[in-house]
Design a protein that fits this description.
alpha/beta; about 50% helix; Spore Coat Polysaccharide Biosynthesis Protein SpsA, Chain A; seven-stranded mixed β-sheet
């Protein structure tokens, strides 16, 4: 029988919350009358999370448990779940019970009725600490500026996807936060609904300032990749032309002053600046050519296309 829904839940040291999370997911899915599977991805937990999930899976054929060899991070855990999911729709949420599984039917209804490819939860009334709210607000504002996202809360893990959206999605680092942006750049239609957000009952948050910094750096990388991955020469070549032309103009000006007006160059640091800009410009142009060659190899060897149908 074909599976209609796959629920992917990354879990790291959530021994107290995985059982109630599992039960609430079943409570939300059973009334829908759709075939489903639940996939917990243990992201290298050091507590008894995996053992608890193993015991649960022995009594439920719909529950699958994946265990990563170490803590690779939430992005890698989600990717593992996507790779093993068999459902036509893939639903993701956190294992800490702050996402409410009972919002899943509303997400599915929105996806099907409005013809979206992805529907995201919006934690409009967040139950987090003040510092976490501030960090998230800053991150959301920065994301919107760089990615032109329209949704309010792209950091919320509670989402439902059509399977084709995540089939070839590359996830590493903290890129799970930017999945809506990456899919939007690919032309998929993104929607959102207000979702119930709850206070953490068990365990401790894994969110800290280090993840914020890493997330910002990943944002710069993914923004650059999505905008210039098929045209690296446009950015490197453009910068190279600007630098080289500026350096050439400076050098020509000072050269004319030296040749025709006898003014010395030894006391003119600007001449060195001009030469330096020319060298930097040539390096940027060479980098653009190399990046273009590497891009052709990347698409050619892997059979990738620069379009989606």
């Amino acid at each position: 029988m074909d599976v209609e829904l796959s629920v992917v839940i990354p879990a790291y040291n959530e021994e107290e919350s995985v059982i109630p999370c599992y039960r609430e997911i079943k409570e939300a899915l059973d009334p829908l009358g759709k075939s489903y599977e639940i996939i917990f991805v243990d992201d290298g937990s050091t507590d008894s999370t995996f053992k608890i999930l193993q015991d649960l899976s022995k009594n439920d054929s719909l529950l699958r448990v994946l265990k990563l060899r170490k803590n690779f991070g939430q992005s890698a855990a989600l990717r593992a779940g996507f790779d093993h999911a068999e459902g036509r729709y893939i639903i993701t949420l956190d294992a800490d019970l702050q996402n409410d599984p009972h919002d899943i039917p509303a997400l599915l209804q929105k996806l099907e009725s409005a013809d979206f490819d992805v529907v995201c939860g919006w934690r409009y009334n967040r139950k987090d600490t003040f510092s976490k709210k501030i960090h998230s607000k800053f991150a959301n504002c920065l994301r919107k500026k760089l990615t032109n996202e329209k949704i309010h809360d792209s950091g919320c893990t509670l989402r439902v996807y059509k399977k084709e959206c995540v089939k070839d999605l590359e996830l590493y680092g903290e890129l799970h936060r930017y999945i809506p942006a990456m899919l939007g750049w690919k032309g998929y239609k993104i929607g959102e609904i207000k979702s119930n957000h709850r206070e953490r009952q068990y365990g401790t948050t894994k969110y800290n300032w280090k993840r914020l910094v890493r997330g910002f750096l990943d944002l710069l990388v993914v923004t650059f990749w999505e905008r210039y991955s098929v045209r690296p020469m446009h950015v490197f070549g453009g910068a190279g032309i600007v630098f080289s032309f500026t350096g050439f103009v400076i050098s020509m000006h000072l050269g004319i002053l030296r040749l025709f007006f006898g003014r010395p160059l030894s006391n003119r640091p600007l001449f060195l600046v001009g030469i330096f800009l020319i060298i930097v410009g040539v390096q940027f142009l060479a980098t653009g050519i190399l990046a273009d060659i590497l891009l052709k190899i990347y698409y050619g060897q892997n059979g990738r296309k620069n379009y989606l149908i």
